[in-house]
Each structure stands twice: as structure tokens, then as C-alpha cells.
Amino acid sequence: TTFQDGGEEVEDGAVYNVTLKKVQIQQAANKGARWLGGEGDQLPPEHTVRQYETSKIRAIKAGTLEKLVENLLTAFGDADFSYISIFLATYRAFASPRAVLELLLDRFGNLETSSHGEVANLNSLESEMVLRAEIASVLRAWLDQCAEDFREPPDYMCLLKLLDYLKNNMPNSDMESRVQNLLKQFQNQEVEAVDGFCGTPSSGLADGEELEISNPEEFSSFQDHVVAEQLTYMDVMLFRRVVPYHCLGSIWSQRDKKENKNLAPTIRATITQFNAVTKCVISTILGTRELKIQQRAKIIEKWINIAHECRILKNFSSLRAIISALQSNSIYRLKTTWMFVSKDVLLMYEELSEIFSDHDNYLTSRELLMKEATSKFANLDSSEKENQKKSQKRLQLQKNKGVMQGTVPYLGTFLTDLIMLDTALQDYVEGGLINFEKRRREFEVIAQIKLLQSSCNSYCLIPDQKFIQWFRRQRHLTEEESYKLSREAEAAADTNILSPKSQKSMVKRISTLFLGTDVFTPPKEQPPKSSPVGGSSGESTDSASVSSCEFNHSETEDVCMTPVSSPEDPLKKSSVGSDKGYDSDKGSIGSDKGSSSKGSICDPGSGSDSSSIPSRDSGSAPGSAPRVLPVYNRQSEGSCIIRVSMDGLRDSVYKSILITNQDRIPDVTQRALLKHNLEPDAVEDYELVQVISEDKELAFPRDANVFYGMNSHVNFDFILRKKA
Using an 8 Å Cβ cutoff, are 586 and 543 in contact? Predict the structure, then answer.
């Protein structure tokens, strides 16, 4: 089988990509083979006759909403078999369920008024049966894949409209019964706010219970694998509830608007859990002032072992949350405490951190996630013998139980990719047509999320109410509190007597592990800045963040932790995806500007090369070559992505903006104002400058071309500042 690009076909209100599929259907003509000297019925090679059949595959590239909905009924005829799934997974970015349902049922689902293909010209029983079958197929797929689209309490207008259509056109059908049952199910359920583990830390507390700082003895009483299993149980419950379309960049990016405070609750719930784990780690390490150095080091060791257990369970969400907490400023700076962490555990910590290395746009974590997405058990490999033996022993215990495991991903990876796609690709193309190629690209990411959600059904975990109640009771320290307690703990540790030889040996060992050098340079200590009201978690490029562990302070579920910068190369360019916290503007999970801590917490959205955006290898017509998309920190093909933050806010609160070589200062300033939910008409009141270094900025003349005027040798970070 071979494929050939057949160009484009343009119809009224739609543009199609055409691919010619050539299939060999017969290799030889057997009749008369003996007369031509063949043995039996086989022809000699020189007389072989090959016959081919060529078929045309049409995949809609862009169209009006009416054409896209009509294509739901014709996609199978055009051999575009994935179209229905792609449309249902992404249509919320450009239409509402009611608009689609009305077009499907009223315009194309009524034989008397339908203009759908041949059906409009034929008034026969056969054509009616064909149309009913097509409508039923689309509705069945809709209910199978996106039943939540019809959850509209208290009126359920779409579901009632669908039920009325089925009663009139498909009475007593299985579809009618199914819709009736779904309506009863929704009506009998209370309006679902994501409950359980997704509320505030105190949610689910019994009457009279209060938040408390962790008791080290109580925490130590929980076995490492029990803690990991319970964190995985909570993560699985939340991840399975994630509504995939909530992850779309065009939807997630709108969450900071006042009217959207309840937007994408399933994503917010996952973020809340991630941050709760991170804060729990910090509270258990710093919450008790009376702890001795060795006791505090033991708690750090315990959390590293728990992270390792999460790795065995393929829970990359809690694994990353724990690693990010250990890399936060308040924990990382406890250099004396880290000296008492055993060598084997430190090596394990380093290996776990390397999973989230930002090298080559987080290639390690991406490949590992896809490798283990559908595997029954974790694929563990350790360079250290003791850790390898321990890992294999724990893994063998899991296998002996005969229970398969799913995979819980770090959701920031997908949020970031989707946000970058949303930033780089236009919603509409020439003629005002909806760009459906963009939706096909987005579906490649959505499909991965769905695959992982399906794999989570393999988990067989039982909740431990004792641990869950303990976890919910934990009072989380603020950034200021944790920093203050960290300073106190380190000051107390410095009073302990360490021989110069012992101290030198310890420092050299830990510096080698953390920095890969023989000189330990502790991070510069700076009191954490207070978070601005209304800020948004390291709003990474509207999609990704670029640092370690910065969280959204604009929402109650998002906590803020300032990660430490890597002392190795503080000015090193960060790829757009090195976000390290949870909750970026359009989907990653927080971040900080330009710093990158080893094994940081977030995943890439799009890096400094085109590989950051998933390649178009599924859900689209074969044979079409992917186009290089604009990325952060690199100018290519006359476009790039810059990050713009507001003056006076944290550096990590920024928006990503796509610019081309035609954009001038007023255009870019207006888009930046829109992204930050400000009045776009106030362009003349603001100035846009590029950050060159801590003490240098590049100012632009009023009508300057931003693309050609910017400094391309530093990070593409800009500040929008109100004029004096």
C-alpha cells in the first residue's frame, strides 16, 4: 500500500486534504501460466502482472461549523475514520453542545429539510434508513465518549431535546432507553463538585477536627509503600475524572477570568492534590522545630523512599510532587541536614530526579511515560547495585500479587503541549473557516490522556482511612513560614560540632551528587517574595513554565513555592516546557523565570526545538508532512513565541504570545493586554521592554518591529509596564 498527496479540494464552506491510497490487489494472472513456461500456476517473474486499486481519502482541513457537523455523517464515506472522535474531543473549543446538537438533529437529522448529500434528493425508505443509521452512529459515539457534555443541571436541555428527537424518529429504540437512563442518572445525582481529595486541605475532616502540623512519630508509623499506595489511590481517583477537553489550551487559559472561577474543575482538583502532596512533604520536614539533624534527615530519606515506591507504582504525579518539594528553596538549603542522608538514598534521589531532567525538552520523562503507558509493571533500571536490588525485590512482590498497574502521568506535560499548540496554531484560517487541522493536532495529545485514563482501571488499591485522615489534617506552611523555619533549622544545625575532615567529606559528597562538581556552592538565600493577589501560577508561556516549583496564588488550591535555581548556569536558556510547579496559565503547572533546578518538577510544553510539539502522526491524512511550529527562545520561519509578564508581578506570572516578522510594538502590546485580561484600547498607556539581564532592559521605539528588534541571544522574556 502506498499513499500519495492528492492536494486540496475546496467546497462551499469547507477545505479538504486529499490523499490517494494505492493498494495492490492481485500479484499475478494465473490463467495460461503453463503455456508461458511457468511451473504449476505460477508465472515467471518477467510475466508477472500487478493490478492496483486507487481510492481517495478526504480529510476535512477547515470548514464552517455547519460543514464540520455535516461531516460527522459523511466521514465514514470519505474514509476519515477518526473524524468523529477528534470532533467530539475538541469541539468545545469552538462550539457549545447545544449548537452542535441543534445542527445535527434539526438541520441534518430531519429527512424533510435535510440537505445532506444524496439524502436530500431521494425520498425513499433506503435513504431514510441510511440517515438514521448515520445519526444513530454519531449519537452513540457521543454518549460513549462524552456523556458529560449532557450534564446541564437542573434543566438538562440538551438531553431532553435529544430524548424528544429519539421518541419522534427512533421510538422504542435502544438509544431512547439509554438516553432515558442517563437522564435519570443525572437527576438522581447531586450536582457533582469534584469531591473527596480535591477540596481544601481540611475537606473531609470530622466535626471538631482541626488542621495540625505533622507529628513526626505519627508520620513515621506509616510504611513507605503504604504512603505511596494511598497517594496513588488519590491521584488515580482524580485523574480518571479528568474531562479531556478541559485540558485544551483555549479552555484552560480562560480560568483566571472572574466569570470562569469554576472552569475546568477536574484539572483544578488534580492541581490541588499535587500541591497538597508537595506542601505535606515540606510540613513534615520543617513543621517540628525540636527535631534533631539526624531526625530531619531520616524524614527526608523516608520521602525519597516513598518517591521510589511511587515510581514502582508508575505514579509520576506524586513522584514529581515529592521531588519538587525536596528541590524547593526551604528544603534544598538545609545543607547540613542533607549531609546526614545516606549515600544510597542520595543516589536514589538523583536517579529519580533525572526522570524529570529538562534535557532535550524533557525527553526522558516523555519517553518513559509512553513506554510504561500500557505496560503491566514499571520498567526499573538503576545504575546503583543496592538500589537495583531493592527495586527488583519490590517489583517482584508486586508481580507475585498478580495485580497489574496503570500509569498516573504528570498532567502538566499534556497541559503544556496543548497550550503551546493553542498558541502556535490559529483558530481560524482564510475565509473565517474553523481550522480543524489544529484540532487534529490537539487530539493527538488528548488521545494520550484517554489512553492513560483507561490504563488506570488496572489499579486495585484499597483506601486506608487512617492515612487519608492524617493527610487531610496536615496544616500546610506558607512560603514565608517554611523559609523562616528552614533558616532556624539550619542555624540550629550549625551549632552542632562537625570535625573539619568530616564536614569537608560530607560537602564534597553532596555537591558531587547535586551539581556534578567537586565544589559545593549553596544557593543564594533570598526571602521569598509575597505572591500578588490575582497572580497566576507561573503562568508559563500561557502554557508552560520554566523553572522549578512555582504555584498559582490566585486560586485557593494553588500554593506557591519558590524553587532554587541551579548554581551551574543561572542564565542558561530554558525551553518553554521546563515548567516546574503545578498550574501554568494555559496548562502547565507553574514556574519561575529562567531558572532550572535539577530534576525539576514540571514538564515541557514546547521546547527550544520543534520536537516540543507532538508530531502529526495520527488522526490525519497519511502522507502529510508536519510543519515546523514556532517555539519559545528561537526565531524560525519568521515567527517565535515570547513571554510577557506585567511589571510589579512575579516573573513567573507570564503569558505566551506568538509574534511574526510583521508585528510592531502596538500590535504586540495590544495582544499582551488581552492575554492579561486588561483593556486592549489602553495601548498608548503601556510600554513593552525585553529583559536582557537583572539590570538591563531593551526598550523599543513606538513603531519598532519586535521580531527584528529583539535580542535573540537571551531569553525571549518581556515586561509590560505602565508609562510614568
Answer: yes
What's the CATH code of the domain at 181?
1.20.870.10
Residue 538 lies in a domain: no
**Lowest-confidence region among 202-211, 327-336, 623-632:** 202-211
140 lies in a domain? yes
The CA distance from 86 to 676, in Å, is: 30
Are residues 578 and 416 in contact, defined by beta-carbon separation less than 8 angstroms?
Answer: no
Cα–Cα distance between 242 and 446 in angstroms, integer? 11
Sign of CA dihedral 285, 289, 294, 295: negative
CA angle 462, 467, 472 (to 5 degrees): 115
User: In the prediction, which pLDDT does 180 show?
Assistant: 93
Spatial contact of 467 and 227, defined as CB atoms under 8 Å apart: yes
Amino acid sitting at position 41 = D
Per-residue pLDDT band at 130 (split at 50, 70, 90): confident
CB 581 within 8 A of CB 587: no
pLDDT in tens, 675-714: 888 888 888 889 999 999 888 999 998 889 999 999 998 9
Residues 6+ apart with CB under 8 A from 483: 329, 330, 527, 528
**Domain that includes residue 248, residue range:** 224-485
Helix (H) or strand (E) holding 66: helix 65-74
655 beta partners: 644
Give pTM, 2 decimals.
0.68
Q: Is residue 184 part of a domain?
A: yes
Is 23 inside any structural domain? no
- Res. 63 pLDDT band, cuts 50 70 90: very high
- CB half-sphere exposure, 219, CA atoms < 13 A: 26
- Do residues 422 and 302 share a domain? yes
Coil, helix or strand at residue 659: strand
Whether residue 589 contacts residue 578, with contact meaning beta carbons closer than 8 Å, is answered with: no
Phi, psi (rounded to 5 degrees) for 606: -155, 135
Same domain, 308 and 363: yes
Q: Count the residues in the chain.
A: 724
Relative to beta strand 2-11, strand 14-26 is antiparallel
Q: What is the DSSP string of 362-423?
A: THHHHHHHHHHSS-SS-----SSHHHHHHHHHHHHHHHHHT-----B--THHHHHHHHHHHH
Say whether 722 sits in a helix, a strand or coil. strand
Residue among 673, 675, 708 nearest 687 (CA): 673
Fill in the DSSP letter of residue 221.
Answer: T
What pLDDT score does 655 carry? 85
Q: Domain count of the chain? A: 3
Q: Give me Rg for the CA atoms of the chain.
A: 29
The helix (run of H) or strand (run of E) holding residue 143 is helix 125-145
Same domain, residue pair 293 and 350:
yes
Say yes or no: 175 and 252 in one domain: no
Say if CB 111 and CB 119 are below 8 A apart: yes
Is residue 564 within 8 Å of 519, Cβ to Cβ?
Answer: no
CATH of the domain at 665: 3.10.20.90
The alpha-helical segments, DSSP class H, found in 425-545 are: 436-455, 465-473, 479-494, 500-515
Whether residue 433 sits in one domain with residue 286:
yes
Residues 328, 379 within the same domain: yes
Residues 357 and 446 in one domain: yes
d(CA 239, CA 461): 14
- Measured CA to CA, the distance from residue 224 to residue 359 in angstroms comes to 30
